[in-house]
User: Fold Zf-HC2 domain-containing protein from Paraconexibacter antarcticus.
Amino acid sequence: MKRPRRQDDHAWSQLHLSHATEGDLSRRQRRRFDGHLARCPQCRRGLQSLEALVRALTRLHDAPAPGVREDIYIHLRDRILNAPPPPGLSG
Ligand SMILES: [Zn+2]
Assistant:
């Protein structure tokens, strides 16, 4: 099998950032992703920001902070959770 070029790995890794964040890569895919990540600061930053976003969204499932009206909180939370992903982060 032909060894993928570096540019191919970058495009492929960008497409699979969300899968990597959710642990949805096969062993082979994970090796390819980690191998590319080791030499690509742009993909490392992408993964870090996506992981931070996932952590923030996870906290959205918790109750609103004290002093925040629950109906407003739920309305905003549901809008955020149902918003379509930005281009490049879908899948
Ligand atoms: Zn990259």
User: Anything to note?
Assistant: The pocket of zinc ion is lined by residues 10, 13, 36, 40, 42-43 (CB under 6 Å). DSSP finds five helices and no strands in the chain. Residues 6-82 form one domain.
